[in-house]
Amino acid sequence: MNDSFDDLQQSYGRCLARRGFIERFYEIFMARHPDIEAMFARTDFQKQRLALRRGISVAILHAGGSAMVERTCAGMAGVHAREGRAPVPPELYPHWIESLLQAVAEFDEDADTRLLARWRQAMSRMVDFFVQRY
């Protein structure tokens, strides 16, 4: 039986329904490690926020085993690979996951320990995919 992570899609919808979720994620993320903020020095945040919105949706679908997003995931992993245009060292991904979990906990009124563990499980699948392609 496949797990489609529908509960995460619903949680993500609740997060996005409250203004400022993506912006709050970036505040948390950039404060977590001194190398992270510098990685975004030349970033167009309007585009970046849209990319993250889409990326989280793709990550949830990927975690659920959707073949629809395979090409998109490979493209995203390529961007963040060692030779990509925005490389992300694997040791920074735990900060990304923890930042996302904190933002979800702040923005989803239904977030509890179980749901946050599900978020961690799903996002870890995407992070593992990225790290393997680094």
Walk me through the structure.
The protein is mostly helical. It has one domain (6-132): Globins (Globin-like, Orthogonal Bundle). Helices cover 71% and strands 0% of the residues. Helix 2 (21-32) runs antiparallel to helix 6, helix 4 (45-63) crosses helix 5 and helix 6 (93-107) runs antiparallel to helix 7. The longest helix is centred in the C-terminal third of the chain and has 20 residues, at 113-132. It starts with 5 loop residues before the first helix and ends with a helix.
Uncertain regions spanning at least 5 consecutive residues: none
First-residue to last-residue Cα separation: 30 Å
Q: Secondary-structure element order, as H and E?
A: HHHHHHH
Number of helices: 7
CATH class: Mainly Alpha
CATH-level-2 architecture: Orthogonal Bundle
Portion in helices:
over 70%
CATH topology: Globin-like
* Biggest pleated sheet: none
Average pLDDT: 96
Q: How many distinct beta strands? A: 0
Structural class assignment: mainly alpha
- Global Rg: 14 Å
Shape field? globular
How many discrete structural domains? 1
Q: Looking at this structure, what is the CATH superfamily?
A: Globins
Q: Report the sheet-strand fraction.
A: under 5%
